From TrEMBL, chain A:
It comes from Umbra pygmaea (Eastern mudminnow). Residues 596-637, 697-716 have a biased composition (Basic and acidic residues). The keyword Cell membrane does not apply. Residues 526-539, 566-576 have a biased composition (Polar residues). The keyword Mitochondrion does not apply. SUPFAM superfamilies: Nucleic acid-binding proteins, TPR-like. This is S1 motif domain-containing protein. Residues 481-505 have a biased composition (Basic residues). It comes from the Eukaryota. Residues 453-678, 695-733 are annotated as: Disordered. Keywords: TPR repeat.
From TrEMBL, chain B:
Belongs to the cyclin family. Cyclin-like FAM58 subfamily. PANTHER family: CYCLIN (PTHR10026). Gene3D superfamilies: Cyclin-like. SMART domains: CYCLIN. Signal peptide: none annotated. This is Cyclin-Q. Residues 47-145, 158-251 form the Cyclin-like domain. InterPro entries: Cyclin-like_dom, Cyclin-like_sf, Cyclin-Q_first_cyclin_box, Cyclin-Q_second_cyclin_box, Cyclin/Ssn8, Cyclin_N. May be an activating cyclin for the cyclin-associated kinase CDK10. Residues 1-31 are annotated as: Disordered.
Length: 761, 260
């Protein structure tokens, strides 16, 4: 019980009320708790109060409700209405009608005014420290009749906002301006009011009102009504009320109830029988309606099931639909309709219905059972359509629903096997396809290749005159690295980067390992295979029609090697994926890429036991990979074999130079407008980590390349341009190749030629 | 719901113009018991209306309209002739239409059926249901005819709310937020529809009286001017009016104690 309220009441009514209370509320523990407290004061009835025993008895009887803490509803925050709309009748203050005397009004005003209220007044004098305002009316927070009280408030200078142009802010204001301001401070004892024009002085719910000079239109409605009433004696409260627009608003009751905070759904009452606690939720109309709809729908469903059993499917569907109209989510109706759909063969509709039913009632046995069956059936259908993964999904779904469903389990097992089989088949098929597609080149592709090569040939013929014998490792390296770079770019661009990187890393890995061996054992016999691959790739330009064939064969060869020596199946799948990826993407550049891949794998085949050198080798391998790709492309473009070979064998010697060369090359190639180059640059950038100063040099070069060429050109032109670039690069490098390798190269060239002849045969 | 008159017999028993005058001349004791019996019935039926109103989610004003329709109906006719609960149901239905809070007969029947048969299953879509529905609709027409189609009333609710806002401005805002004047006066207003006082007094008077009683209950004092606040709110209200209404209202609470 609210002690303070009780005390207030008691002090108003006196001791008699207390007696009544004690009598009526003797069993109320809430009262008992504070009874002692209350009895300490003796209550005198207020002067002028009547002796109203009935009322007191009433109060005493209902005290447990009246003074209950939960009785008071929390009113929502007071929002100032948009007075243009007048949702309810806005009345002038009652004081005016009551003719409350001046003094009392004044006292009450000072008692009740608070910080944050809004006042409207007229400036009556402007001084250096601020201006004085005679208050006319309240603008929000309190509604009183204050005009004739002639209260003056001060607005000090610091609370006048400056208008930004460095003038004295007070100069903006003039005598008799209407000002709206917020009350900043009230000195109740001295009856002084300080107002402010700063928005921060306002109460939170009044924040949006504009302070400062206002016009007569901005005056609040109740003020104009005050004036009207003041001027016209016949205006009574009633007349003002009934004459106002808000009075005729049919929803003014609702509106004010919302403002005050009284709920219509749980209305207060002082009758014992109407207290909220007596109302049960299931007695409410909405609850009963739901139950009723469910039972009516069920009736329809039963009739429908009868129809269904007798084979009258159309009538059955009608009944089910009727039932679902009555009750939208009726579980039984949904299950029955689902079963009907399933029988008819509309499995998807059936599944939807069952799922909807299970949403409402997750433990419905029949729904689960039927859903499982339907899912399995649908899975079977999909299986026949060769959509094995989707079918598997359905079977698994059925299993999650019912773990022990035998059909589902069987089906899942079956489908798993099937899927594995089909995956294997697919792998093999893809491998075959990959091979085939290498061989199968469209005539357009061939033509393009021929054109490309012819161009390169032309350029090379120009350069080859100068570069016929001088095999500069650096140049070749540069060229090869450049070629590899661009090849890699293409590779990188077309298929997923992750895969590519893995392939490349692993292939590089192998390559690097191979290169390491190469480095330490000058041309041991078993490295001929890699050279073989290289050579075949270099020889290719001269045998244009056979290019792809060779490539294909070497690719497969390389792969065979790869498989035998390096059992990284992931790489093979990567290759597969790559090849697949290449299928899907531009078929134009498939062959060069595959050549790259084969080369990589071929080199990887060298890597038996070279895995210890992974760490360092990787990085080297990457560099060399680039070079190798460059080398390949160069070969395609028609560079002479020795250059190619020298490039790979010279890597060890001239790693640094090569890297610098590659950086040079990259800069050169960048000059030749290779967006693809830049891509590779990015790629190599990201791959290489902390290789060293040369690496950084490379990076810088590549960065420059990247910056310069942001994918402007089409990369189809790149083969030609890259060829150009590489050609030019190759020229420079050719001179550096030492002569003791010439023998090797000539041997290899011979061997290659023989092989080509054999293949042709 | 077997006590309800079915649609067929409604026609037979409608005697719209039977005057209650005859009853008043019987012996005093009889009148008392009979009138008190009637009052008891009316009280109970109005309680039924108010409960149903809450369960149907009706707003305060339509519930008030329903009660007024009921009281006015039985001012003219005898309770022995017409089944009061059926009339109440029809009044609820009609009030929903008048006050623009339309209710479905299905919901009214469901709630009322459950009121009489606690915890029972909802009615199935059978002859019972349709008979009841017919009865309600027929009775609605009967009520309309009995009241000469004057079915829209001025209720105290609007006045009370405006008075509340005006009085609120008179008191200190903190005192106001502490004291549940609004809830109490609203509760008193709603409760006053249990009896015929709602039709015997002017709506403004009722509003003032409930507000007055609420302020009295909490010992709130308002400033005094030349005139009292309640005198200002309505020109023709006197202290007697206020006192009468208050006493009627308190009487209703006694009735509750006696009869429920």
């Amino acid at each position: 019980m609210d002690r303070d309220l009780l005390r207030q009441t008691l002090s108003y009514h006196g001791q008699t009320l207390f007696a009544h209370l004690k009598c009526e509320q003797s069993e109320n523990p809430g009262f008992k708790a504070i009874e002692n407290d209350l009895s300490k004061a003796s209550y005198q009835r207020k002067d002028g109060g009547e002796d109203n025993a009935v009322v007191e008895q009433f109060i005493a009887r209902k005290a447990d409700i009246l003074f209950a803490p939960s009785w008071k509803s929390s009113a929502p925050e007071d929002v100032l209405e948009d007075e243009g709309e007048e949702p309810y009748a806005i009345m002038p203050p009652l004081e005016q009608f009551m003719d409350v005397p001046f003094e009392e009004r004044r006292n009450l005003l000072y008692r009740d005014m608070e910080r944050g209220d809004i006042v409207i007044g007229r400036i009556n004098s402007i001084r250096d420290f601020g201006f004085f305002v005679t208050l006319m009316c309240m603008g929000g927070g309190l509604e009183r009749d204050i005009e004739d009280l002639e209260i003056t408030a001060l607005c000090p200078l610091r609370d006048v906002p400056s208008n930004g142009n460095h003038d004295d802010p007070l100069s903006y204001y003039q005598m008799n301006d209407l000002i709206r301001a917020g009350v900043k401070d009230i000195d109740r004892y001295h009856e002084k009011i300080t107002i402010s024009l700063q928005p921060s002085s306002l109460a939170p719910n009044l924040m949006n009102l504009k302070l400062g000079v206002v016009s007569r239109d901005d005056l609040p409605l109740h003020y104009s009504r005050i004036l009207r009433v003041a001027n016209d004696n016949r205006e009574t409260y009633e007349r003002v009320l009934e004459g106002s627009l808000g009075y005729s608003n049919p929803s003014n009751v609702e509106y004010i109830l919302g403002k005050i905070g009284i709920s219509e759904t749980q209305p207060p009452s002082l009758m014992r029988g109407l207290q909220r606690k007596h109302f049960l939720m299931e007695d409410f109309a909405t609850a009963i309606r739901k139950k009723q709809s469910a039972s009516w729908a069920l009736k329809c469903v039963r009739i429908g099931v009868d129809h269904f059993k007798s084979g009258r499917y159309v009538e059955a569907m009608n009944e089910y639909n009727k039932a679902l109209e009555i009750d939208n989510n009726n579980v039984e109706a949904l299950v029955a309709r689902g079963a009907l759909y399933a029988n008819k063969g509309s499995l998807l509709k059936a599944i939807t219905d069952f799922e909807l039913a299970l949403e409402t009632c997750p433990t419905h046995r029949n729904a689960k059972k039927y859903l499982c069956q339907t899912l399995v059936e649908r899975g079977g259908q999909l299986e026949e359509e060769e959509k094995l993964v989707t079918a598997e999904g359905f079977y698994r779904k059925a299993l999650t629903l019912d773990d022990n469903f035998p059909d589902a389990k069987q089906a899942v097992r079956k489908i798993e096997l099937l899927i594995q089989k089909s995956l294997k088949l697919r792998d093999e098929a893809a491998a075959k396809d990959a091979e085939k597609s290498k061989n199968v080149e469209t005539s357009a592709e061939k033509l393009r290749k021929i054109l490309k090569e012819e161009k390169r040939m032309k350029r090379k013929r120009k350069r080859s005159s100068s570069s016929s014998t001088s095999f500069s490792s650096s140049s070749s390296e540069r060229s090869s690295s450049g070629r590899r770079k661009s090849k890699k770019k293409r590779k990188w661009r077309r298929s997923s980067r992750g895969e590519k990187r893995r392939t490349r890393i692993s292939s590089k890995d192998n390559k690097s390992v191979a290169d390491d061996e190469e480095e330490w054992y000058p041309a041991p016999p078993n490295t001929s295979a890699s050279f073989l691959n290289l050579k075949t790739s270099t020889v290719r330009p001269f045998d244009v029609p056979d290019t792809t064939e060779d490539q294909g064969q070497h690719h497969s060869k390389g792969r065979n090697y790869f498989r035998s020596h390096c059992s990284l199946s992931s790489v093979s799948t990567d290759a597969l994926d790559n090849s697949r990826g290449r299928f899907e993407e531009d078929p134009f550049d498939i062959s060069p890429q595959r050549a790259e891949g084969s080369k990589g794998k071929g080199e990887g085949s060298k890597g038996e036991g070279g895995r210890d050198k992974n760490g360092d080798g990787e990085v080297n391998g990457r560099v060399r990979d680039r070079e190798a790709s460059r080398g390949k492309r160069k070969s395609q473009e028609g560079h002479t074999v020795p250059q190619e070979v020298s490039s790979s064998s010279e890597k060890a010697k001239n790693r640094r130079t090569s890297s610098s060369a590659s950086s040079e090359h990259s800069s050169k190639s960048s000059q030749s407008n290779l967006p693809s180059q830049s891509c590779v640059s990015i790629y190599s950038l990201s791959d290489i980590g902390g290789y060293g100063s040369t690496e950084q040099a490379i990076k810088k070069e590549e960065n420059r390349a990247v910056q310069r060429y942001d994918g402007g050109d089409k990369y189809r032109s790149s083969p030609y341009t890259s060829g150009n670039g590489k050609g030019s690069a190759a020229e420079g490098k050719k001179k550096v190749l030492p002569t003791n390798l010439l023998d090797l190269f000539s041997q290899i060239a011979q061997f290659e030629k023989e092989k080509c002849i054999k293949l042709k045969k | 719901m077997d006590r309800f008159v079915s649609s067929g017999s409604m026609e037979a028993v409608s005697r719209g113009d039977s005057a209650p005058v005859g009853r008043m001349v019987t012996a005093a004791g009889d009148t008392d018991t009979e009138s008190s019996r009637e009052m008891k019935t009316h009280f109970r039926v109005c309680r039924f209306i108010m409960e149903t109103g809450v369960k149907l989610g009706m707003r305060s004003v339509p519930v008030a309209t329903a009660c007024v329709l009921y009281h006015r109906f039985f001012q003219c006719v005898s309770v022995s002739v017409y089944e009061p609960y059926l009339v109440a149901m029809s009044c609820i239905y009609l009030a929903g239409k008048v006050e623009e809070q339309h209710l479905r007969t299905r919901d009214i029947i469901n709630v009322c059926h459950r009121y009489f048969h606690h915890g029972s299953a909802p009615l199935s879509c059978g002859s019972d249901f349709w008979d009841l529905r017919d009865s309600v609709v027929q009775c609605e027409l009967l009520v309309l005819r009995q009241l000469n189609f004057h079915v829209s009333f001025q209720h105290p609710h609007k006045y009370l709310l405006h008075y509340l806002l005006s009085v609120k401005s008179l008191v200190n805002r903190h005192a106001w937020s502490r004291t549940p004047i609004a809830e109490t006066s609203w509760a008193l207003l709603r409760d006053c529809y249990h009896g015929t006082m709602c039709v015997r007094h002017a709506p403004q008077h009722i509003a003032i009286a409930t507000l007055y009683l609420a302020l009295l209950s909490y010992g709130v004092e308002l400033p005094v001017g030349e005139r009292e606040w309640w005198q200002v709110l309505c020109e023709d209200v006197t202290k007697d009016h206020v006192d009468t209404i208050i006493s009627d209202l308190l009487h209703l609470y006694d009735m509750e104690a006696k009869w429920t």
